[in-house]
Write a structure and sequence with these properties.
Helices cover 4% and strands 40% of the residues.
């Protein structure tokens, strides 16, 4: 069955309050998931289970799969008791499979199927928000083994920039870029959507799907003025033919073509990436998909795999390096840096770590400890057998020392353009520290030129249009350049970040 084209009248008729009563049994893929047994633009099925509970799903290819949740183990940090990783054991048609929940993980093979675990109930502890609509121990999604996560031609990458061009907060990662990590017991904000860091006012945001604009700023289309749409001056919501709502927020500006009640095509402009609304002061796109879940509630539809798949389709990279999520440890505590989520089209990869203490290490994983409080950025270089390379960076926040409550400075660096940069072309760099005071920042552009000192406002006013320090740099030769940005607070603690600039 192909993609169904709905008129505005059809959207209004099938969405809103009506959608709640049109759920497919045992699935959470939206109100169109039950039409014809297999809606063309939804390739997976969803089930929520308690430990020991078994369920049965009919997939879109007609196959029936039996799933049982065997166990869930959460690993928490020693700083604020936040969940950092989750191991989930499931049985799929009699075969035992171990999954990692959220945190930049993709579906794994399970016999004739693929399966992932977007969220577990452990993420609800120490938080007071329900973004997922989960009422059981774990949520599982299953695909036929040969299917795409989302069918080609139904979803595109929503920002016009390179993969991991800057900081991110994705897939249950606790918020951290704006110095959100705090030691001691507290309410934790696990990020349920996808945050793409970028240069304020310069990066174009586009619609990930065809759909109907149901909210532009404070203007909401009739029939969509209740959950899950939450209007705000910097927000756009688009409803697609799957029955999913797409939230684009913190926009620097909304494109003039956007009007609620009008249709938008995949890839058409939504606006420019910014830090408006409740951004915390760092410039990024908050992109979130919201759909009906097996509980009957609206909840986040985990989208990391969708953007991964879309990026590979559109840009065809040979290698993708992944060193995320960020790490949180105490002074002297060992942390495992993990590049094992990286990918190569050829399947053959080698790994090199260039560490902040000046040492190097090989292999997908490296163990390291730190003797001083600070925010560190560790460099991962991934190469395939054909000489293709990619870089990523693991942020490590180290707490402790004489004052256990001290928060190391955080820093956000970004640049534009991030793709097709040519020798001799001016590149704009923006940087902001998160210290509530002006301490200044330094940028080393990685080409042997003298470091440049700048001074942001320290995030004293989160939405200040001049909050970021801005400078330009020109690379004279083609090559891969690793930019380092850092700040030092009044106590001598360092906050560091890296960027990868490829010049053609």
């Amino acid at each position: 069955m192909g993609t169904v084209n709905l008129s505005r009248r059809d959207f209004l008729k099938l969405s809103g309050a009506v959608a709640a009563s049109v759920l497919i049994s045992g699935c959470g893929e939206g109100f169109l998931g039950g039409l014809g047994g297999c809606f063309g633009s939804i390739a997976f099925r969803v089930i929520d289970l308690n430990k020991g509970e078994r369920g049965e799903l009919r997939l879109c290819d007609g196959s029936v799969v039996n799933v049982r949740l065997l166990g869930v183990q959460h690993k928490r940090d020693s700083v604020c008791d936040a969940v950092r990783s989750v191991k989930v054991q499931v049985e799929v048609d009699g075969e035992t499979v171990e999954l990692s929940s959220g945190n930049y993980n993709l579906p794994v093979a399970a016999g004739r199927y693929r399966i992932d675990c977007p969220v577990t109930f452990g993420y609800y502890e120490l938080t007071d928000e329900d973004r997922w609509g989960l009422e059981k121990d774990a949520r599982l999604r299953l695909w036929p083994g040969g299917s795409a996560m989302l069918p080609e031609g139904t979803f595109v990458y929503p920002v016009r920039q390179k993969w991991f061009a800057s900081a991110t907060q994705m897939a249950n990662e606790p918020v951290h870029v704006d110095a959100g990590e705090q030691p001691g017991p507290r309410k934790i904000y696990y990020h349920s959507g996808l945050d793409f860091g970028g240069a304020e006012g310069l990066v174009e945001v586009v619609s990930a799907t065809d759909g109907l604009v149901v909210c532009r700023g404070e203007d909401v289309l009739e029939g969509h003025d209740s959950e899950p749409v939450k209007p705000r001056y910097d927000v756009v919501y688009v409803l697609d033919e799957r029955g999913w709502y797409y939230r684009y927020s913190h926009l620097y500006e909304i494109d003039k073509s956007i009007e609620h009640g009008k249709r938008i095509k995949m890839g058409e402009p939504i606006g420019l990436l910014g830090k408006e609304g409740g951004s915390g002061g760092w410039s990024h796109l908050h992109f979130e998909i919201i759909s009906k879940q097996p509980s009957g509630k609206w909840g986040t539809e985990e989208g990391y795999g969708f953007i991964w798949e879309a990026y590979i389709r559109e840009y065809r990279p040979k290698v993708i390096a992944v060193a995320r999520p960020h790490k949180v440890v105490k002074v002297g505590e060992e942390v495992v840096l993990d590049g094992g989520k990286s990918w190569g089209a050829s399947g053959e990869l080698s790994y090199e770590w260039m560490l902040s203490d000046g040492t190097r290490a090989s292999g997908a994983t490296v163990k390291k400890s730190y003797s001083e409080v600070g925010t560190y950025s560790e460099i991962l270089k991934v190469s395939d057998g054909g000489g293709n390379t990619a870089y990523d960076f693991c942020k490590v926040q180290v707490f402790g020392g004489e004052d256990a409550e001290v928060v190391p400075p955080s820093i956000h660096a970004c640049y534009w353009p991030t793709q097709d940069v040519k020798a001799g072309q001016a590149v704009t760099f923006k940087v902001r520290s998160f210290t509530k005071e002006r301490i200044g920042e330094t940028l080393d552009f990685g080409d042997g030129s003298a470091p440049v000192k700048v001074c942001s406002d320290g995030n004293k006013m989160a939405r200040a249009r001049d909050g970021y320090a801005v400078t330009e740099h020109v690379y004279e030769r083609a090559g891969d350049y690793i930019v380092r940005a850092w700040c030092v607070d009044k106590a001598g603690h360092v906050g560091a970040a890296h960027l990868h600039v490829r010049v053609g």
